[in-house]
Amino acid sequence: ASDLPASVEALTLQSTTTTSDYPGCFPSLNPMDIYREHIATELSKGTGIDAELIYTRLAWTNTLDKGDLALPVAALRIKKKPQELAEELASKFPASDLVHPPTACGPHLQFFCKPQPLANTVLGRVLNEKAAYGTNGNAGLKDPKDPSKGQKKIIVEFSSPNIAKPFHAGHLRSTIIGGFLANLHTVLGWDVIKMNYLGDWGKQYGLLANGFKYFGNEEALQKDPINHLFDVYVKVNGLVAEHDKPIKELKEEIKAKKEKNEDVSAQEAELAKLVEVSEDEKARRYFKSMEDGDPEALALWRRFRDLSIAKYKQTYARLNIDFDVYSGESQVKSESMTKAYKAMEQAGVAEESEGAIIADFTKHGAKKLGKAIIVRKDGTPLYLTRDIGAIIERDEAYHFDKMIYVVAAQQDLHLAQLFKVTELMGRKDLSDRCEHINFGMVHGMSTRKGTVKFLDDILRDVGDKMHEVMKKNEVKYAQVENPEKVADTLGITAVMVQDMTGKRINGYTFNLEAMTSFEGDTGPYLQYAHARLCSMTRKSELNVDELPSANFDLLTEPHAIDLIRLLASWPDVLINTSKTLEPITVLAYLFRMTHMLSSSYDVLKVIGSEPEVKKARMALYAAARQVLHNGMRVLGLNPVERY
Ligand code: ARG
Q1: Cα–ligand 1 centroid distance for 386 (angstroms)
Q2: Does the annotation count 165 as an active-site position?
Q3: Which of 114, 252, 395, 485 is most buried when burial is the number of CB atoms within 10 A of its CB?
């Protein structure tokens, strides 16, 4: 994602244009801003209404039949019936070279761009700016009109798997959505820090270390650390269960005897012995030695961690993701946690309860958040405690403007408690900068063999399936250069697009057949649309560098005009996405475009057209390909050129 560009509006342009004082207006980056600026200025001239008010109320439309921009006139706060006001404003709008006379449609004033100037601006820009078209490096500036004040900084914390445990669907979604949010902020000019907060600390690592002594194998660890550690983890958990059985039985016996007032001293002695040698107790002791900083214990744990990270990096690379920071529960300093409870105590948030320290949110106007343990009876911190320490450390280390936690909705309560504690500690300034981006569950994620442990297994399985699908078209298949690699990319696209279809909060069922189909709004279909545009360019035998000089006035058909209007709105789609923070905002736009494209091919033929028309149409398709490419890249997809 580091190659994603973000163009910035030239400063000189700002000082020479008088009208770009409108907030968030960057006519050199966003063609629709030219129109907003024009409409606001002209309408203000004709009516005396404040131009900035008009500017800020001009909205994009969901469908092209509602215009390219619409003004809900009620938002102008003029005491008049909106319908009448809309009619009146329509009649007062001066004749314009850029837009048709506006139409009043109920309480809305609809503006349609005149096609030729739009075509020239938009197609020229897309073909020249290429990957930068639609990006807006000004959006992420601390002061959009003064770049010298620097960029805003955002931490996107995402993926965050637990070492030696399965990388489950929740981590997959967090990875996909988090990667997208990082890309989105990058193209909008933010300084983005991608952080992976590993589950890498706790008693289970004591268990794992001991398990490795019994079941571990150095060679297997080096070769495939993630799977090997998971195997060890499963085996040692088997031991725990074995040891637990007699302990549980003995406990029951003691309880029953006590009820009958019988002597239990022999059983209690026996129980103590069993506990002493149990795997669980050994794990606790091992973890205690890690907490106490025992170098040998830490060295083994660190190797597990490092090897796992190295392997995770390979998997993330397949998804176009690289993290800037691998933090984790282990990295939170105990001083930070101590500092946090002190602050909590002072603020009256922390209280003692049966030897533990708890926060009772019900006493602080947050009934729904219940109570949370902050420090256990035995003095050890919890998941929440580490997050409290971490939020403070991150604030000190990065001075971020915003931090996003991309975590499953199952942890809604956890994050709400974290933010509330932070606020109650007197750090509302910090909690206000943090946001939980949640998402629903995935059901039935498994490979065809029925097993699922890790992301790699899933991606391989979907890739294999894609390969089978590709082989069905023998002629096409024979032309693909590296079919395995392409199948892998298509498989990843399939998984990601399925995940990004629908709002984040909705869960979905993992459906291999549906996601790998070329029909419907699927990943393979999106790739097909891109590859088809690439193949068209190859077959046209035109020099792509000459396309910007095409005569765009020749693009007069409704299909061509609508496609241009859609391409014009891409920068607005990105800005809108920065408000929704939903991948579907981008994806739905891309599918609108691919549908429009597929109905255009028969009407707007390239091959066989007059040379000038051919060139103009090819330029239009090349521009569409570019925008499709840009959108796919923001989503984290790798557009393929043929398959
Ligand atoms: N490792 C955790 C899990 O798998 C997710 C961590 C989420 N982030 C956080 N700051 N708590 O459940």
Answers
A1: 11
A2: yes
A3: 395
Cβ atoms 568, 632 nearer than 8 A: no
* Alpha helices (H) along 480-610: 483-500, 512-515, 523-540, 558-568, 570-580, 583-600
**Marked catalytic residue, from 38, 108, 153, 168:** 168
The yes-or-no answer on residue 152 being catalytic is: no
pTM, full prediction? 0.94
Clarify whether 185 is annotated catalytic: no
Q: Enumerate the β-bridge partners of residue 110.
A: 70, 103
Residue 77 structure tokens: 């706060």
Pocket residues: Cβ below 6 A from ligand 1: 157, 160, 162, 197, 199, 387, 405, 407
Q: CA angle 293-295-298, nearest 5°?
A: 75
- The domains of the chain are located at 11-113, 201-327, 342-383, 455-635
Q: Which of 197, 184, 585, 583 is nearest to 415 (CA)?
A: 197
In this predicted model, what pLDDT tens digit does every residue of 171-195 receive, in sequence order?
999 999 999 999 999 999 999 999 9
ipTM of the complex: 0.99
* Equal fold, 11-113 vs 455-635: no
**Ligand 1, atom 5, residue with closest C-alpha:** 160
Ligand 1 geometric centre to CA of 162 (Å):
8
Q: Which CATH architecture has domain 455-635?
A: Orthogonal Bundle (1.10)
C-alpha 195 – ligand 1 centre gap (Å): 12
